[in-house]
Amino acid sequence: MKKHFFTNSEEVGNNMPHFTNNGFEVVKCPDSIWEVITDLYKICLQAPVKEEPFAGLHNNAYLYDFEPYIGIVRHIHNSLLPLHEFWSNTILEPTAIWGIRSYTKGSQLMYHTDRPLTHHISCIVMVDKDLNGKEDWPLSIKGHDGKFYDIYTEPKDIILYESTACLHGRPKEFQGKYFRNFYMHYGVRDLEYVGIRNRK
Known about the structure:
Elements lengths: L2 E4 L17 E5 L2 H14 L4 E3 L9 E5 L4 H10 L1 H8 L3 E13 L4 E4 L8 E10 L8 E4 L5 E4 L5 E5 L6 E3 L7 E11 L2 E4 L6
Parallel strand pairs: 1-13
Antiparallel strand pairs: 2-10, 3-4, 4-5, 5-12, 6-11, 7-10, 7-12, 8-9, 8-11
């Protein structure tokens, strides 16, 4: 039976249910899945697609589209489901994954929270980066304790985070050549939001 969470469309962040100690954790991608991801990455590099700024959140980004490789992508999404369920201690459903976003010089990711219905538990898989001798580009995230943390990652790192409950972004302009990661999202199976609309 679904549990009901009553809210309104304006409430985000710490008003959302929490499933983990502080809302985020960095882990290593399992070797078997990392091999699949790196092979897929090599294929995707052949056809970058320019991505327009989305709702003011990011710019100067290209998207290496996963759509032509949906079978492989579903395998990755489903294979990493147990990792997310163990971390969040709740039953999840895979909901969204698009492609590898390649941020270039001047990119910013404004602070935001994600869609409650489909993005409650999420992850960022770090794939590749070329800082061109410049400073690294951390994810800034607000934990459940109300403090902001800067998270630095290397290829094969996965940031698990409650993307609906934790304000997050990369507000500093990226100064390197490229920074590439992709996002995976999971919905909470037994939680129904009452009085909230999913943002597009």
